[in-house]
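Worked example 2:
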Amino acid sequence: MSVFVLLLGFPGVGKLTIARELGSLISAKIVDNHWFSNPILRLLDEEGTAPLPKGVWEYTARVRQAVLDAITAYSGPSANFIFTHAGVEGDERSARTYQQFVDAATQRAAFVPVRLLCAEEELARRVSSPARRDHLKTTDVETSRSRSQKAVVLDIPHPNALTLDVTFRSPLESAAAIRDHVVACGA
């Protein structure tokens, strides 16, 4: 059986960086959450500065579902995947997105959700990286601080769940801890 690892965390926590390290450790394909949103967002506002129209996320959900459907229909039975998602506790859209991953995994893979946490100051430092802007990733430090103070990373109970504080861990150390957890889950 294959494994679907879902890395959950606020923007800047290092989801994609950790996914790249983990991908080499467990031989997995990486599907970043920006694969689903950027095709739509680039059509609307190349600079990423205009307010997003209401309902735009429903279109990114359709892109995500098409990708998940293709994976479940056509990827090899032993293929592993790592997905990223900036899920927020109490947000209905975040919960629906999470469920899309659970439903896809149920068809063909073990599911391992991993919550990545990071201290507010370190998260603000990471999110401010200018390289993030090139990928339509947020670089707004004040929004990052506000999110850290007011929100919680999505935490839906699952028997294979792992919560990992990555504040002082390197991406490779984080990836190794996740790999060890995946192995312990029997995936």
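The helical segments are 15-26, 34-44, 56-74, 92-108, 120-127, 141-150, 171-184. The first strand starts at residue 2 and ends at 8.
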